[in-house]
Amino acid sequence: MMMTRGTSRVARLTRGGRLFPAVKGAAAEGEKFPVMGVRWRSSLTLGEKGQVNNKNSEDGGNKEVVASYWGIKGEEVKKEDGTPWKWNCFRPWETYQADLTIDLKKHHVPTTFLDKLAHWTVKSLRFPTDVFFQRRYGCRAMMLETVAAVPGMVGGMLLHCKSLRRFEHSGGWIKTLLDEAENERMHLMTFMEVSQPRWYERALVFTVQGVFFNAYFLAYLASPKLAHRVVGYLEEEAIHSYTEFLKELDKGTIENVPAPAIAIDYWRLPADSTLRDVVMVVRADEAHHRDVN
Question: What's a single GO CC term here (predicted)?
């Protein structure tokens, strides 16, 4: 199948992780972005993309407006009140209100050998994380979410292939795991707006995610039960980390800034919500993933 001129151009420009020309242009003009000096074009809202392209056109650049990853303009989506929907990384029907009635102390006591292996594996991973990030909970959360979104995708992918090989239904687990991965990814998109990781922390993501992806892939092949137990214990640690995050916010050690717009729309939060409200709903999500796994 031949690619359209616009699509091939976008694919060529994004290959190798390079920035789009429009974003380069914005960075050159000194526009401030909250993370990594500049924000990737895929994380901008539709309105921001239009503004970037308008700036480019004023300088003699092309007037093409790229509204999706592939350079194909999607259909216009509106909110319930009729106002335009400004996010292309999720849609209104994917938003929800988090259930905050969670049991923070719930713990699966390890009984079998696999349970104990999963439990102590996670405990051993917590020590270097505490040493590296200490009380920088914003960057810690962003770093951990780059890893937390991996298990659901790996498990969903392997169950998908298993369903194809055996010509059988998955019992709904494929969608459950992929939804979990997507939810964790949205946590990352949210914390990107409030955290500014250092260059070595961004570089660490490549190493940690690469090692964890392959290790979890092999673990799931060997024993899905062990893999899910690992995720369950990881989520228990995530609940603990976000609880400590809330304590720092309450003490004033971390500034309780206004909630990012992406979080307000994704979790249907009130317009005057703060970072504390965001951490509360994220912690509730982690508790749900803990119980599922």
Answer: respiratory chain complex
